[in-house]
């Protein structure tokens, strides 16, 4: 009895080892099923995907014995197509780029970064936003203010002050001092040293908040009579619609 019990786990280990060495590999990627070859998966030795199938498998298997990767499966077909034929995808670029980064497939990452979509985001838009002080923090601040004002309301608004130059920043502060409102609730963006305009920044704010799942719009903020400056020179109202 003792000899038999010792041999059972050994048999499972041998079976698992043989399955690992099979040139044909079945994958379950987030519920999507794929069949490919071990050589395809290991095409780029420095990638995380190759590492998963080098030596002892570093993956769990599902109930059918397929190797399971806990990632979105829909876009894995583009990763697989690139490994098979070096074909760079022309659709779902942003999503495929995220997966290429996860699997650390360096040649695909570089080629995707040359695509207009990724190039425009990383080199143009992100480089611009990096020059806008506290941009990401201000986006989160806007969301917190909007959520705090959403109680029993269909919409909540956030006033934003946008200034491009140091001179405008000084004028904006004077204008802000004459506003009859809680100045702590006004979110200030700028100044910055880059080509994009105020309207470009406003579009970026809307894009990044919408990317977080919020429904948002903006318009120039018109202050009451007696305001010392044209309010639309600096101030904009962002409307969050909740239902």
UniProtKB/TrEMBL annotation:
GO biological process: protein homooligomerization
Chain ranges of the BTB domain: 23-120
Name this polypeptide is given: KCD14 protein
């Amino acid at each position: 009895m003792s000899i038999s019990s010792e041999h059972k786990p050994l048999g499972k280990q041998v079976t698992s080892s043989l399955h690992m060495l099979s040139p044909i590999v079945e994958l379950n990627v987030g519920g999507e099923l794929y069949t490919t070859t071990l050589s395809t998966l290991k095409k780029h030795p420095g990638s995380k995907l190759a590492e998963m199938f080098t030596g002892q498998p570093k993956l769990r298997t599902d109930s059918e014995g397929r190797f399971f990767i806990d990632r979105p499966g829909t876009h894995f077909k583009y990763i697989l197509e690139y490994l098979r034929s070096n074909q760079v995808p022309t659709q779902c670029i942003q999503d495929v780029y995220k997966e290429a980064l996860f699997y650390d497939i360096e040649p695909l990452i570089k080629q995707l970064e040359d695509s207009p979509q990724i190039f425009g985001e990383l080199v143009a838009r992100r480089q611009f936003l990096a020059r806008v002080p506290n941009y990401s923090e201000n986006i989160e601040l806007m969301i917190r203010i909007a959520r705090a004002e959403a109680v029993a309301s269909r919409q909540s608004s956030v006033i934003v002050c946008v200034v491009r130059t140091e001179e405008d920043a000084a004028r904006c502060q004077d204008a802000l001092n004459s506003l009859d409102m809680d100045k702590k609730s006004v979110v200030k963006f700028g100044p910055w040293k880059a080509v994009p305009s105020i309207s470009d920044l406003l579009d970026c704010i809307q894009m990044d908040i919408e990317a977080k799942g919020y429904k948002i719009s903006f318009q120039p903020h018109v202050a009451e009579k007696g305001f010392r400056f044209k309010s639309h020179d600096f101030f904009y109202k962002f409307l969050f619609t909740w239902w």
